[in-house]
Amino acid sequence: METISLNDDLMAPNVISDPHGYYRTLREAEPIHWNARWGGWVLTGYNEVVEVLRDSLNFSSDRMGFLAQELTQEEQESIAPIFKILSYWMVFRDPPEHTALRMLLNKHFTPIAIERYRPMVRKIVQKTLDKVLSKGKIDFVKDFAYEVPMTVILELIGAPDLDTEKIKEWSEKLGVFFFIKADEPRRREIACEGINALVDYITPLIEQKRERPGIDLISLLLSAEEAGSITANDVLATCVLLVFGGHETTMNLIANGTMAFINHPDQWDKFQKNPDLLKKAVEELLRYDGSVKSTVRWAKEDTQVGNTLIKKGDRILVSLSGANRDPQQFTDPDGLNIERNPNLHVAFAHGIHVCLGASLARMEVEEAFAGLISRIQCPELVEGAQLEYYPSVVHRAIKELPVYIKPLIK
Amino acid sequence: MENIKVSVDLNKCVGSQLCIMFSPTVFERDGNGQSKIVNRNGANLAEMLSTAEQCPQCAIKVENTQTGEVLFPPPELAF
C-alpha cells in the first residue's frame, strides 16, 4: 500500500477544531484511506460514502458483534451492562432484526407524524427567546440550543417531568464509551456507570407505562412487545436510545447552524429578508456543519469500493462531513449557500440506518431558526471568545458559544 | 391504478428502503441503492399513500394524472 504523509490521529486538536479542513486534505489525497493508527478505512469522498451507506448487504452496523470479536472474554464481561443494552439498539443492528423495529418506530417519525409537535416546539422557542433577549449576553448552547430538543424528546416518550440534568450527565458518561475520550483509561467504567444509571432511571418509568399506557412512544413499544413483534430487551434498549440520542445531536445542529451564520452574516441577512427559504436553509446548515461527523461500518464480505478492495472484517469510518464538502457533488462546497438546490447531503446518513429522528430534527431546527430570524439580529461572538469542540470523532459539538443577542429592530 | 402516477425523486432519495419495507411489491433497489418502481399496480392507492408517507425525504410523489392534483406530499412538507 502506498504510504503518504497523512496525520492519522483523528483526535488531534487541529482535526477536532477543523474537521472539514482535515477531511478535505484526506479526500484530495485518498478518498479511501487506510488509517493505520485506528486500524480501519476512512472514507471521505461522496460517492464512496454513499455507496457504503446504501449497501447494508455487504456492510454491517453490528457494532457490538464486531466489538465482541476484538475483546477477550474478561474485557467483554467488564462491559456487560453496555452489551446488554447496546446490542439491542436499532442503529447497531442489521436486517432482519433492524427491519421490524424500524418499521414499528418509523410510523411515528414520518414528516407528517412529527407535524403535531410543531406548535409545541414553536412555543418553546418563543419562550426561550423571551428569556435570552432579556439577558442580552448568553451561552447559546446552554441557554438556547439545549432547551428545545430535550423538552421535545421527553414529551415524545410521555415523561415531561424527568430530570433532564441527570439524563444529560448519564448520557455524557455513556457517550465516553464510543464518542469521546478514546484515551480515557476509565472510559469503560465510566460508560457502565452511565448506562446503569440510565437503565435504573428508565425502568420504573417503563413499568408505570405498562400499568397505565398513554399515547407516547414507550406505550407504543410496550404494545408491540405484548403483540410479540419485539422483546422486552428491545423496549428497554430503545427507550435508552431515545433518551440518549434524542436531544444532543439536535442541540448541536442548532448551535453549529448559528455558528455557520455568525461566519456568514450575508446569508443570515438573506434569510431574514426571505424567510421562505427556511427549508432550504436548514438543509444547507445540515450539509455545511452537521452534528454527526461520521459513522462506522464493518465489511461482511470482501467488497470493492471505488478502486479499493475492502476485506471482510475491516472496519470503515464513513465521514459524513467529508462527503458533505466533496466538490464532485457540491459546487463551492466550503461556502454556505442557503438557496442550494438540489442538496442531497448525508448529514443524517443514507441507507437503511438513515436517522430515525431526521424529520423531527428538521422540524425543530426549522422552528428554532424561524424564531431566531423573526426576533433577533445575527448573533455576535463575544470578543475574545475561544471556541472549543468536544474531542470526538463522531460528534461535532461545540462546548460553549458565548454571544450577544440583540432584538431585531423592524 | 388508473389515473395515478407514482414517482421517486432521485435528487431526494437516500436509499432508506422504507418504501421497499412497506410496499415490497411496488419498490426495489436500483443499481445506486436508491428506490425504483417495479410494479406501479402492486398496491392500492391507500397503501401507496401510506408508504409514501414513510419516506423521511418526501421523495415519493403520488399524483392524479386526470386532475393534476398532487396527492402526496402536501406542499408544506416539500423541501
State the total count of DSSP E strands of chain B. Answer: 5
**How is the main sheet of chain A built?**
5 strands, mixed
CATH class of chain B: Alpha Beta
Strand content of chain A: 5-15%
Number of helices of chain A: 20
Taking all residues together, what is the mean pLDDT of chain A? 93
Whole-angstrom Rg of chain A: 21 Å
On the 0-100 scale, what is the average pLDDT of chain B?
A: 95
Question: Can you describe what's shown?
Answer:
The complex is a heterodimer of chains A (410) and B (79). By secondary structure, chain A is α+β, with helices and mostly antiparallel strands. Helix content of chain A is 52%, strand content 9%. Chain A has a single domain (13-404), classed as Cytochrome p450, CATH 1.10.630.10. In chain A, strand 6 (303-305) and strand 7 form a beta hairpin. Chain A is globular. Chain A starts with 12 loop residues before the first helix and ends in a 6-residue tail after the last strand. In chain B, the strands form 2 sheets. Chain B has a 3-stranded antiparallel sheet, covered by helices on one side. The mean pLDDT of chain B is 95. The chains are: A alpha+beta (410), B alpha+beta (79). Chains A and B meet through helix 3, helix 7, helix 8, helix 18 and helix 20 of A and helix 1 of B.
Provide a concise account of the structure shown.
The complex is a heterodimer of chains A (410) and B (79). Chain A contains 20 helices and ten strands.
